[in-house]
């Protein structure tokens, strides 16, 4: 079966910051009654994402059953 869905999204080095991470998390959160997006891998290396944006993105794992891996290397997450 051929599909036109994105399974891997690489958005490295795009200056997404916390606000962009918040919007991205919202866009990837499935709506009630609708199926999950088919995205399995999300790479967000080096995007100046802080702890607030990382928390928004981490919440995806509880609501999106298809997302398997997220790469947040080289961001400003810290130890919060």
Question: Please, could you describe this protein's structure?
Answer:
This protein is an alpha/beta fold and 80 residues long. The chain is built from 3 helices and 3 strands, in the order E-H-E-H-H-E. It has a 3-stranded parallel beta sheet, with no helix packed on it. Strand 1 (8-10), helix 1 and strand 2 form a beta-alpha-beta unit. The protein is globular and about 35 Å long. The N and C termini lie far apart (44 Å). The mean pLDDT is 90.
Major sheet strand order: 1-2-3
Radius of gyration: 13 Å
- Major sheet: size, sense and barrel closure? 3 strands, parallel
Oligomer: single chain
Spell out the helices and strands N to C. EHEHHE
Summarize the structure.
With 80 residues, the chain is of the alpha/beta class. The chain has helices at 17-28, 51-58, 60-63; strands spanning 8-10, 41-43, 69-71.
Helices and strands in order:
Blueprint: E1 8-10, H1 17-28, E2 41-43, H2 51-58, H3 60-63, E3 69-71
Parallel strand pairs: 1-2, 2-3
Helix pairs in contact: 1-2
């Amino acid at each position: 079966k051929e599909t036109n869905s994105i399974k891997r999204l690489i958005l490295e080095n795009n200056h997404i910051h916390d606000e962009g991470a918040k919007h991205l998390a919202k866009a990837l959160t499935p709506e009630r009654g609708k199926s999950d997006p088919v995205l399995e891998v999300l790479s967000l290396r080096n995007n100046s994402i802080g702890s607030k944006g990382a928390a928004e993105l981490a919440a995806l794992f509880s609501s999106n059953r298809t997302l398997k891996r997220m790469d947040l290397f080289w961001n400003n997450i810290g130890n919060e």
